[in-house]
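Protein 1 of 2
SEQ + STRUCT:
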Amino acid sequence: MLRKLQKNKTSGFTIIEVMIVLAIAGLILLIVFLAVPALQRNSRNTQRKNDVAALLAGVSEFVNNNNGTLPTSAAFANGAVTFGCGGGTCTTSEAKVGYFNRGIGAATGQVNMLAAYAGSGPYTTAANDRVTIDPAAGCAATNASVAGSARQLAAIYEVESGTGSYAGACQES
């Protein structure tokens, strides 16, 4: 008789406990999904900065090996940019690149590198995502090039600063 009056205790989870676990799991997934784009953006920015440093080193090496003469040509092949003097006799130099690996577009006194990655925002095409190397220039506080010494180089490029927005960056040799 006592057995029938005692409440049977069953093992298992209540619906409240299951809902709490699902809510916590959902919160963790939300945090992960919000963090992944920022990590990818930081990775691309790091690759941009590394390529810019390699390009500046390549141009600086060319200048040092050719008595202060700036390169007049640049060619892209096999993941590297070769700086030269356009058919003349000079010692060429090379810069290995990974992010800015699309090709070269020349302008007076500048070398523009076209990117392989097309981001979002104002730089949605590879033709817009580039590095411009200015000779005899340094970097201003506004991330723009300013007049510098004859042996100084400044590289102007864009880095991703948020979803669809970009900020100017400057790096000098």
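Protein 2 of 2
SEQ + STRUCT:
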Amino acid sequence: MELKMTNRKALITGGSMGLGRAIARAFAGAGADVAIVARRAEVLEQAKAEIEAATGRTVLPVAADVSTASGCEAAFAAAVDGFGRVDVLVNNAGSSARAPFTE
């Protein structure tokens, strides 16, 4: 399957590592500019450098905690401020706590 995202603007939470980073790189490789959101600025900067070098697209690193409403609002505002719009949203951030179902 060929993915074409020419001139699209994507906002990807959890975009600094793992699946989120892979999605960001794939979208950028398909022509999108991507805003990647995570809590740690230093990891975001590493991901930005790698994705931009590999794809030539613009990567906007956004340090925010999307487990809070204010963090979500700040991340979206930063993406719109940086790109003028958001065409695609990937909600990838999350965590889990291992425990028995009843807990």
